[in-house]
Amino acid sequence: MADRHAGESARQAGRMDRRALVRAAGSAVAGLAVGARGDTGSVAAESALLAPPCGLYCGSCDDFVHGICHGCGCSCGHCNGEPQARACAIRECSDERGVEHCGRCAEFPCTKLIAFCNDPIWFSHGVAIENLRRRTRIGTPAWLAEQAEYWSDPERLRRMLFLLAECKEREARASQSAPAHPNQ
Ligand code: SF4
Ligand code: SF4
Ligand SMILES: [Zn+2]
After folding, report:
1. How far is the CA of 70 from the centre of ligand 3 (A)?
2. Residue nearest to atom 7 of ligand 1 (CA)
């Protein structure tokens, strides 16, 4: 997620007030309510965008909250979703293996995923493997509903946006001497 929007998003996150956070969380949940119906086991397209193969939840990402991205792999042509997914080694690997997400892969958790989860810059990735375990256990629709409910708390979201702003600043500093890693 290190990109040219890094500095801009960090500033936006810093400026975001509590009311804006509540609105953002509310619209994220509204978007999910349509698709994440555990009874049918199906996940509507807009909800599936928030459940990428790596185990992150895109609904808690600052790019999503600020409308810069509609979720991993979104092909609307007007957001970060598709370019980011195209450059992602985890996405490429799960596509090649034909698994919905890494939790359903025979290699889970592979070295690549462990490294992603323990990235020294992107602390926000730390939940990925445990998210995948939970998602595998309860299924993607139920997991999405659980995540939407969890992140509807504006204080939780505010703390995540704070963390992401810090991660982006660290990535910007680290990238001054080397190109960004394709997973981010
Ligand atoms: S790390 Fe890869 S799979 Fe995960 S959200 Fe980012 S682009 Fe999508
Ligand atoms: S090998 Fe690793 S990165 Fe690839 S799909 Fe399996 S768990 Fe995911
Ligand atoms: Zn989009």
Report:
1. 4
2. 85
